[in-house]
Amino acid sequence: MTPLSEQEIIRREKLQELEKLGINPYPAEEYPVNNTAANIKALYTEETKDQFQDVCLAGRIMSVRDMGKAAFVVIQDSTARIQLYIRRDDICDGDDKTRFDVVFKKLTDIGDIIGIKGFAFITKTGELSIHINRFDFLAKSLRPLPVVKEKEGEAFDAVTDPEFKYRQRYVDLIINPQVKDVFIKRTRIMQTIRDFYNSMGYLEVETPILQPIPGGAAARPFTTHHNALDIPLYLRIANELYLKRLIVGGFEGVYEFAKDFRNEGMDRTHNPEFTVMEMYAAYRDYDWMMRTTETLLEKVALALHGTTQVQVGDKIIDFKAPFRRVSLYDAIKEHTGIDVTNMDEAQLRATCQQLNIGVSPSMGKGKLIDEIFGETSEHHYVQPTFIIDYPVEMSPLTKKHRSKPGLVERFELMVNGKELANAYSELNDPIDQRQRFEDQVQLMERGDDEAMYIDYDFLRALEYGMPPTSGIGIGIDRLTMIMTNQPSIQDVLFFPQMKPEKI
Questions:
Q1: Domain boundaries, the chain
Q2: Given this model, what pLDDT does residue 149 score?
Q3: With 60 as the cut, is the pLDDT of residue 155 above it?
Q4: Which residues 6+ apart lie within 8 Å of 321 measured at CB?
Q5: At residue 169, what are phi and psi to the nearest 5 degrees?
Q6: Residue 470: in which H helix or E strand, if any?
Q7: Residue 8 among known ligand-binding residues
Q8: Any idea which architecture 6-145 has in CATH?
């Protein structure tokens, strides 16, 4: 265990001194907060000041300016920072000045959480403040906060080290309060999506996270073991097959915000635990889903920004519907000059070699085409673009195209050079679905550890009959990155996965 620093030792000594004075540094009782810093700042005027004569706030001490028998203190609650004015004679009874001279001046530190009571006023320098007549300890901070230099209210030396920010997000949120805005917007994004689908009469549901078969996507799962049943289980890689079971059961539209897990690499757009919104609608197809999705994302942009134009890095991305549509083969041809439409596996391997794309023997035709698109074309689609009509080998859960042999009715939505959503006209032919699963088994036997397992219960469900259905998965983490202009998925997750800390 890391030895305590000098500051940590001093703060523990102060803790003991508080206890000797009969002050509980961690009281249990409710504190009667009746306002917030942001509300006072927004509503206080000369006309409304009478409403702020009995203010009770709680927050964390962020700075102290000692003036002898008085002091200015800045506290931060969940909404904003506000200045306090504390005077010795106002908080002390009679001749006993211990509350100010000892408790406040000697035993209180930046980072402590306090409760205060007093009235709002404007100082001679024109700053809104709370003149306090009582303060109480609510939690003594035993670790000092990182020092952040500020000038005229603006931080110019905020802690930016990613290792610190992501591992100690609780401190990041304290010293960089603007980080909260990203997560507030993330919640607004999800609420906008909920409202959109609820208005269509669709039902939000929950499906299993622990699954006997990891289905619904091509990915490597996390495995675990259930002791009571003595069986292996998997953390879900997708919730698709369970949601389609509900369509079989008679629901016309269902959606779920799902935590999915994939035991794969990590980078600025991938975390092993991530959030996906999946929605399935009976009697719809992928054309309807494209129209619905562009309408949804337009609403999300407007809800967050009041405009469809969103700043992402040095680009402006416009979510105004309709979005461009480009076939997968046309996209590859546009950016490589090569037409892969009628190529067999050997020809695709030769094309990969020609384009200097690394491939493995386990890759089948679908994976090879996916690699070519990913390496040569994907990054060009900055503005929202539906890449449509994929080869059947890439899409084992998708209905064959109604007019284009060898293709399926699928789209991926590309935004800022990355996939944001994946959608199909869902395969509801149980005979065709069984054959597609068996093709996946052959890929697994070749060493493809992302190939799908056969889900016999799902096949049984299809045999009862699933209506024509369209489904979509939207990556909530990536959508939040785009809508909040964040460069890394770690910036939109409260607690991203990291290597264990050496303590």
A1: 6-145, 180-323+383-492
A2: 64
A3: no
A4: 291, 294, 295, 297, 298
A5: -55, -35
A6: strand 469-475
A7: no
A8: Beta Barrel (2.40)
Residues with Cβ within 8 Å of 292's Cβ and at least 6 positions away in sequence, in order, are 281
Which has the minimum average pLDDT: 123-127, 414-418, 448-452?
448-452
DSSP state for residue 381 in the 8-state scheme = -
29 marked as part of a ligand binding site = no
Give residue-wise pLDDT tens across range 241-279: 999 999 999 999 999 999 999 998 888 889 999 999 999
* Strands lying side by side in the sheet with 231-235: 210-211, 231-235, 223-226
Cα 248 from chain centroid? 31
Percent of the chain with pLDDT over 90: 83
Answer yes or no: CATH 3.40.50.2000 is held by domain 180-323+383-492: no
pLDDT digits (tens, 9 = 90+) for 305-336: 999 999 999 999 999 999 999 999 999 999 99
Please give, one letter per residue, the 3-state secondary structure of 28-88. Answer: CCCCCCCCCHHHHHHHCCCCCHHHHCCEEEEEEEEEEEECCCEEEEEEECCCCEEEEEEEH
How far is residue 348's CA from residue 335's CA, in Å, rounded to a whole number?
A: 16
- Euclidean distance between CA atoms 332 and 83, whole angstroms: 59
Quick check: do 6-145 and 180-323+383-492 share a fold? Answer: no
Nearest 5°: the CA angle 48, 49, 50 is: 90
Q: Classify the C-alpha dihedral 139-141-142-143 as positive or negative.
A: positive
- Give mean pLDDT, residues 134-140: 96
